[in-house]
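Might you be able to check the backbone structure tokens below? Thank you kindly.
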Amino acid sequence: MISTLLVAHPWFGPTVLAVLVVVGPLLGWWLLGRPPRLSWILCALSLVPVVLLTLVPTQREVFERCAVGWVLPTFGRVELLANVLLLVPPVLLAAVATRRPLLALLGGVLASAGIEAVQALLPVLGRSCDTNDWLSNALGAALGAGLATVALALARRTGRRAEKAEPTADALR
């Protein structure tokens, strides 16, 4: 379904990628001045498409449980590019919420591996695992962590103070 849309509109993936690269650090910078809870809520919302596109059962019959291949995504490989885009927002938002891009990157890479493992172990889902999907997801996670790093650098450069997770005594009065 999503692949059909992306093949019919090949400009969609690169456009989303460009928007993420431009808007991602600015959104992260803005969120750094807010309570981390907002970043976590947005992160959870950004995981909804990840679950829908990777773990919801399909009507497809699986002939191959796991495909092994190492192909880098390009603008012409719309499904691989979509897999890159899939993890950029959650990793960016988790990195902003924790202020730890490397931890969020690790979480994104492990989550992608977990998704592929579930797809391999549950053929009833009608999905097959693919190392190319994991690689593309990992690249998207790296991009999300990189954009969060830019947001954190912008916040430091502009003197924007990150909101604390715990309310201060003054805030409780």
Residues 61 and 121 are 14 Å apart (CA to CA). The chain has one domain: 2-160. The helical segments are 2-8, 12-31, 36-54, 78-98, 101-121, 131-158, 169-172. Residues 168-173 have pLDDT under 50 and may be disordered.
